[in-house]
Amino acid sequence: MHRRKALQWIGQGSLLPFVAVLPKFPVRSATIDLRDVRERINEYFASLLSPARPYGVYGTVSPQETDLYASCDVAIARHIMGESLTDTLTDLQKQQWIHHINSYQVAEDGSYTERFGHSRLHANGMVIGALGVLGGRQRFPVRLYKPFDTVREVVPWLEQIDWAKQWSASHLFWGGIHCYSLSSACTDAWRETVFAWLNDNLDEKTGWWRKDMRYTDRHQPLGGSVHILPMYQHHDRPFPYPERVIDSVLALQLPNGRWLDRPDPKVTRQHVMHYLELDALYALHYMGTLVPGYRKEAIGQAVHRYADLVVNYWHDPQSGWRDQHPHRILSMVGTFGLLQKLLPDGFVDDIAWTDIFSDIRLYDTRAVEVL
Question: Which domain of life is it from (predicted)?
């Protein structure tokens, strides 16, 4: 039975979280109390609110400058940390937050402005996640799906993606193909066409898209693939090469424990919780649920090496994590959520965290769309 049928999503206002048997590894050294993390991050988020503005109008690194992404990031991050915003917020707070997000929507095509440098489809995905956890709907119909919303058009659209530079190009898939696949307008034939193309174009030697591709740099296949893999997870479709993805992700880890090999020369203290690290943990976690016994020790060692960096970073008063835009804080929150799944004895909380890719509630297009 497909995931969408199991969830009985037709006519439902929300989707249940994805649940799987998780590979667990024993804690090796220091731990992080995620209750403390929640408290400190929520305090930081509260500092980005101004009493002179409606609720949900979050600043970027101070209350003075606001944008669409800051308000979406905080909604998603608070949800990932286990907060049910539809229960904890007043009706007025929810209405103001939803109204603020939708104030960025353009009537002509349903796209959103103030995109923090991202594409229109990436912003669409962010809004779907934020409105979904706030219990809201988009203000206007989204026309961004039109170039690929038929069986005839979707394959040429997939072919034209810049797969050599897919870390950013795959954002179009994530906020477009994936979100549309969970829309009430999507058909079974369309989904079958997409999965057939994806399977045919997987590299059986690496588990990456696409076959025989020369990437612009080492980060591209990992950063790109994780924007596609959740579609398999959320529709409960078999992924052909989980072992190869595990091999590829482990091979990409650097000696220092990170996956991102792009230091910023402008800063003396590197923020070690980047989106590419989140991507690596998600790939190892999800693929590990598909083949639980495969290279378990190697996965455990890789996760521990990175977790040591996170522990030191979080406990370092000079880390400067508060100086980042909420979109970067969101990567931290999602990383903590995945580390809790992989190392539950090392990242402790009485609340189960989620992450930006596994949690199907962040992709509830049907609940937020306006047709």
Answer: Bacteria
CA angle, residues 39, 43, 44, in degrees to nearest 5: 120
d(CA 46, CA 43): 5
Give the distance, in angstroms, between the CA of residue 63 and the centroid of all CA atoms in the same chain. 25
The alpha carbon of residue 11 and the mean position of all alpha carbons in its chain are separated, in whole angstroms, by: 25
Instruction: Name, in order, each residue with C-beta under 8 angstroms of 7's C-beta and a sequence gap of 6 or more.
Output: 15, 16, 360
Q: What is the pTM of this model?
A: 0.91
> Residue 173 is encoded by which pair of tokens?
């898939």
Burial of 370: CB neighbours in 10 Å, binned 0-12, 13-18, 19+: exposed
Could you tell me the CA-to-CA distances from 145 to 94, 173, 209 in Å, in that order? 27, 10, 22
For residue 60, what is the DSSP state?
S
Burial of 263 (C-beta count, 10 Å sphere; 0-12/13-18/19+):
exposed
Mean pLDDT by 10 residues, the chain (371 residues): 37 38 48 95 96 95 88 98 98 98 97 86 97 98 98 98 95 97 98 98 97 94 98 98 98 95 62 95 98 96 95 91 93 98 95 97 98 90
Q: How many CB atoms lie within 10 A of CB 60?
A: 18
The string over 63-89, giving b where at least 16 C-beta atoms fall within 10 Å of a residue's C-beta and e elsewhere, is: beebbbbbbbbbbbbbbbbebebbeeb
Max CA pair span of the chain: 56
Considering only CA atoms, give the Rg of the chain: 20
